Design the sequence.
């Protein structure tokens, strides 16, 4: 499992430029590859430091670290995938076909639920189809815990995931018009291939992405030709009760789009939540959050990209406070 996360980090790093180039949904800000890589790097580092034989415990720690340092929509969903996948694996010291199918199914259910407005044609669709592909394998259905059964399930997972990536171009009009597959879906495919390779002691599939529309190294940065969205991406961590979290999701939906709220860890009678939203008014979002708690680890990033770079325009460490949401927005 440590080798999986490490190999996935390397693979995402190697492909980050091309993933950035085809990143046009939900906004054409050209940072999906970078966000996935940095988020996986946090997960891999946390796993490397943990001394345990419990693969659920390992993935849970990796997922929590990824969640605290998640970047963008794609990074947040990747961290949700890891933490949710860990849940049915606690107490296990090896991965089997039935466990893999169960973990993927839990992860896809959780990933769809954290978004206020999930849509097909994204990495959510790829995860969902990967889970379905794994669950249809006889070994997963019959409780076969052999290595051969796991191999069959991993390969079925990859076939389903690759087919889902190809379909993303047809599922979102933005992708159809640009003749490109979804960047997050491709990145997630690389993560799954790293799992297959690590579990089976095989190499990553160098030809895996051959033929995917927009993924030719000769193609320009497709995202730079797309309309730029005004506003910023706000991300933070905050401790909320379940009721406050549900209310906050509804309120954030009114202030912006691409709202993601995912529980990181329990704290007293509530949870630490990782919050993500695209909004035209960062100050209003921070002001809203302060009505129920104190947001920490705040980042505010421009949605309009210059080339394929995003600009981080505010970082609030745990120990600092900003004068007001409005002041922060004006400073940005």
Sequence:
């Amino acid at each position: 499992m440590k080798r999986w996360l490490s190999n996935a980090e390397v693979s995402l790093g190697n492909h980050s430029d091309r993933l950035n180039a085809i990143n046009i949904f939900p906004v054409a800000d050209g940072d999906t590859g970078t966000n996935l890589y940095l988020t996986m790097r946090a997960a891999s580092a946390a796993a490397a430091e943990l001394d345990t034989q419990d693969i659920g415990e390992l993935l849970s720690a990796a997922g929590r670290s990824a969640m605290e340092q998640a970047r963008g929509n794609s990074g947040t969903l990747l961290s949700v995938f890891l933490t949710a996948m860990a849940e049915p694996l606690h107490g296990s010291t090896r991965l089997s076909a039935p466990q893999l199918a169960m973990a993927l199914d839990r992860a896809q259910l959780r990933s769809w639920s954290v978004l206020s407005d999930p849509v097909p044609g994204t990495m959510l669709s790829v995860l969902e189809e990967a889970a379905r592909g794994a669950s249809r394998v006889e070994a997963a259905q019959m409780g076969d815990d052999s290595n051969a059964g796991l191999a069959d399930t991993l390969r079925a997972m990859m076939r389903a995931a690759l087919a889902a990536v190809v379909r993303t171009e047809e599922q979102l009009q933005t992708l159809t018009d640009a003749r490109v597959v979804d960047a997050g879906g491709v990145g997630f495919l690389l993560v799954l291939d790293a799992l297959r390779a690590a579990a089976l002691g095989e190499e990553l599939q160098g030809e895996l992405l051959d033929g995917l529309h927009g993924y030719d190294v000769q193609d320009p940065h497709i995202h730079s030709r797309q309309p730029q969205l005004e506003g910023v991406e706000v991300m933070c961590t905050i401790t909320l009760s379940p009721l406050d979290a549900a209310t906050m999701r509804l309120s954030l939906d009114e202030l912006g789009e691409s709202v993601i709220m995912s529980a990181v860890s329990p704290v007293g009678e509530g949870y630490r939540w990782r919050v993500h939203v695209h909004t035209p008014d960062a100050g209003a979002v921070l002001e809203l959050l302060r009505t129920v708690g104190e947001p920490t680890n705040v980042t505010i990033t421009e949605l309009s990209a210059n080339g394929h770079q995003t600009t981080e325009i505010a970082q609030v460490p745990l120990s600092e406070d900003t004068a007001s949401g409005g002041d922060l927005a004006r400073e940005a």
